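ok trying again, last paste got cut off:
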Amino acid sequence: MLFLLQLVATLSTGLFSGAALYINLVEHPSKILCGNFIAVTEFGPSYKRATVMQASLAALGSLSGIIVWLLSSGITWLLGGLLLGAVIPFTFIVIFPVNMKLLDTSLDKNSEFVSELLSRWAKLHAVRSLLSLIAFMIFIVSLILAI
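nice, full thing came through this time. structure:
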């Protein structure tokens, strides 16, 4: 049971981290190259689809990491779980206001403000990518040491 939870924590965190990195390194820069109008128009549908997947993976990875810590007293599982879990309040408190501005239907999609919002969003999302990547590396090392 413990090993299964370790696998779930590691896999969930790896998938979250991979998706977050893909967004930062591939999807978002590609949108930006298409211009502000297209980038902000595509942001809405992409955001709605990614939210469901990433929220589920973050919650599952964080919760399973913390449960592994509770069952095994392995502090690294707590650390990884908390790092991944930190993306949830960070998203709600810091990124969500930017998301709402980008999703605002009255936003002038060709404005310089859109460019600033998209740039700010990318930097904030990079924090999520970094936190999840560190958590994933912690879980990988912890999993290897557990074998």
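cool. The chain has a mean pLDDT of 96. Residues 2-146 form one domain.
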